[in-house]
Write a structure and sequence with these properties.
Layout: H1 2-46, E1 53-56, H2 60-68, H3 85-90, E2 101-102, E3 118-120, E4 125-127, H4 134-146, E5 153-158, H5 167-176, E6 181-185, H6 187-190, E7 200-202, H7 215-218, H8 224-230, H9 237-247, H10 249-273
Parallel strand pairs: 1-5, 5-6, 6-7
Antiparallel strand pairs: 2-3, 3-4
């Protein structure tokens, strides 16, 4: 009799836990989808021109297009450019800027933890982190390069990107005075540079270092909508509220943890009644 009750309890517990696990995932999916849909709708309504190109030293630009559901009109999607990124920017108008030759895997960065396609233009080394095949990466890079909108061009640089930037890079960036630009920096940057950074935006370090490079985690530090409309990165209380309600992926993590904690508290009571 005791064994039978234990078996029944075991299966009933497993059943309820699986049911609530499924319910938990459904609730999260609905909340995240609703936030992203409303955030995208509001952002697109406010952005005046949807045909823009973001040149970025990593996948940040791709994250903007993905969030807004717009065509990825940038050659710097799915890749990273490190020490020679400023050379890449300065030579965008060169006839050979989109000519990419393949390099061997010895040029891959160890921090990636794997080998990946890598190429080089006459001006910069391109790390195709998100590709498995160089031919595909090369073809998409050249195709997207032709789609650059030079009349509505934006630039983003991260001075904390895998610690590959230095004081000379910031000084060079400041001299370039690029319009429609934004420069991310953190406490790591302040260790080697204490002056003003052209269109600089301070990004607080997160638990995971890669979060600094992802649009979903760092757009809360400046109004990216106004930036796409005016070219100037700034911050307003209105945008802070909007970001908290609809945009920040960090809030999704907070919601997930809160709901998980709530389900853990209510499940034992329900199981006991069952």
């Amino acid at each position: 009799m005791i064994t039978k009750r234990l078996v029944i309890y075991h299966f009933s517990t497993g059943y309820w836990m699986s049911m609530y696990s499924k319910k938990f995932r459904e609730i999260l999916k609905h909340i995240f989808y609703s936030r992203r849909t409303l955030g995208r709708y509001y952002s697109l309504k406010r952005i005046k021109n949807h045909d823009f190109t973001i040149i970025s030293d990593n996948c940040w630009g791709r994250g903007v297009y993905k969030f807004l559901g717009l065509p990825c009109n940038t050659p710097t999607a799915g890749m990273g450019i490190e020490r020679d990124y400023l050379d890449f920017i300065e030579n965008l108008n060169s006839e050979s800027a989109d000519e990419v030759t393949e390099l061997d895997e010895s040029h891959c960065e160890a921090i990636a933890g794997r080998t990946y396609p890598i190429g080089r233009t006459p001006y910069a080394k391109l790390h195709f982190f998100r590709y498995n095949n160089f031919t595909v990466a090369q073809r998409l890079f050249r195709m997207r390069f032709k789609n650059i909108n030079k009349e509505n061009l934006y630039y983003k640089i991260d001075f904390d990107y895998y610690n590959c930037r230095n004081k000379e890079d910031i000084e060079r960036w400041n001299k370039m005075q690029l319009p429609n630009s934004v420069a991310f920096y953190s406490d790591e940057t302040l260790k080697f540079y204490s002056g003003k950074i052209h269109n600089g935006v301070y990004i607080k370090k997160k638990m995971h270092p890669l979060n600094n490079f992802h649009f979903g985690f760092n757009q809360k530090y400046f109004d990216f909508i106004t930036w796409l409309n005016t070219g100037i990165p700034n911050q307003t209380l209105k945008y802070k509220v909007l970001n908290f309600i609809l945009l920040d992926d960090g809030i999704n993590i907070f919601i997930a943890k809160s709901l998980r904690s709530t389900f853990k508290k209510i499940s034992p009571k329900i199981l006991k009644r069952a």
